[in-house]
Amino acid sequence: MREIIPALRRWYAAGSPFGLATVVGVSRSAPRGPGAAMAVGPGDEVVGSVSGGCVEGAVFELAQEVVESGEARLETFGYSDEDAFAVGLTCGGEITLLVRRVTPEEDTSFGAVADSVTAGHPVTVATVIDGPAPRGAALAVWPEEVSGSLGSTGLDVAVTADARGELALGATGQRHYGPHGERREDDVTVFLHSFAPPPRMLVFGAIDYAAAVARIGAFLGYRVTVCDARPVFATPKRFPGGAEVVVDWPHRYLRGTATDDRTVICVLTHDPKFDVPLLQEALRRPAAYIGAMGSRRTHDDRMKRLTEAGLSRAELARLRSPIGLDLGARTPEEVAVSVAAEIVSLRWGGSGAPLTATAGAIHPTGPATS
């Protein structure tokens, strides 16, 4: 979608209707993933691709029909063993497409969405693809505002909460709801398309606990990097699952690495010669979470050293130490769960208390206020 935004902005600004086909589901070896898009505009101009060439001809005709009728369509394309020349994916996969007409009158939010994508600002577009809700209806969700509607206030509220969660992770995919946003029903299928890169998780200290934290970080949607100055420990073999492994002094690596307000930093070295210079750097830069492992004695010594190094009280208040929530964790995997729980709680302003001891809405409807 990002690649074709310039053409879409031009058509939208001119008030020219265009057909937008978006991959909303894939199976097996489909050539392009969810979010891939192709559009057919005025003069039959085509931009983008949904399959690398396998079904583009059929999608072109489908987009023309949708522009003419104004009715959104959901279509699935797959390879036909019975007729190798039939429209289908020669790779053997299957893709599902939502094709809808876009005009300034029908989608008043599209211009703002396109502007945000062009500027690199995070936004999620939620679109109804199936069920008892207007197919093709779109809701644009930014961290602090919302535009559009999916046809029901309850559905808008539920989808907005989920869209912000997906946006925080840079994730794209389908969610299911009842007609009014009921979470235990699956009548309405909504496609959440997030325009944001996955947030980073930086794990320092290549120990067993780091391997467990890296795995759960990847599960939560983070792009994980593990850094340690000791090459005997910092090896890809010890950290399977796609984590990047870097051999460098932690503070030096962090100094040369960009972070933002979504970045998670987990300091698991619990060695002053690594911890102190690393935390000096971490606590003075943007990050959503900075946690450090160690006993309470280690924590007290670390805070003393950091104070002596000149960190302010406000800077030290950002440090979550000892790292994690009190779950009674013992094993590396259990500790990783406690760390992940603290990260999620801090992101959304959760109390960390059992839900049986709380009242009110279970799922947050907006970003954390803290």
Give a nutshell description of this structure:
The chain is of the alpha/beta class.
Can you describe what's shown?
By secondary structure, this protein is of the alpha/beta class. Helix content is 31%, strand content 23%. It is built from ten helices and 16 strands. The strands form three sheets. The protein has a six-stranded parallel sheet with strand order 13-12-11-14-15-16, sandwiched between helices. A five-stranded antiparallel sheet has the order 3-2-1-5-4, sandwiched between helices. A five-stranded antiparallel sheet has the order 8-7-6-10-9, with helices on both faces. Strand 6 and strand 7 (138-141) form a beta hairpin. Helix 1 (5-13) packs antiparallel against helix 3 (110-119) and helix 5 packs across helix 10. The longest helix has 17 residues, at 153-169. Residues 81-87 have low confidence and may be disordered. Residues 11-78, 118-178 form the XdhC- CoxI domain. This is XdhC family protein. It comes from Streptomyces yaanensis. InterPro entries: MoCofactor_Util/Proc, XdhC_CoxI, XdhC_Rossmann_dom. Residues 201-343 form the XdhC Rossmann domain.
Fraction of helical residues: 25-40%
Overall pLDDT level: 90
* Beta strand %: 15-25%
User: Taking strands numbered 1, 2, ... along the chain, how are they ordered across the largest sheet?
Assistant: 13-12-11-14-15-16
Report how far apart the termini are. Answer: 33 Å
Order of helices and strands: HEEEHEEHEEEHEEEHEEHEHEHHEH
Basic shape:
elongated
Parts with pLDDT < 50 across at least 5 consecutive residues? 81-87
Largest sheet report:
6 strands, parallel
The number of distinct helices, counting runs of at least 4 residues, comes to 10
According to DSSP, the number of beta strands is 16
Structure class: alpha/beta
Radius of gyration: 24 Å
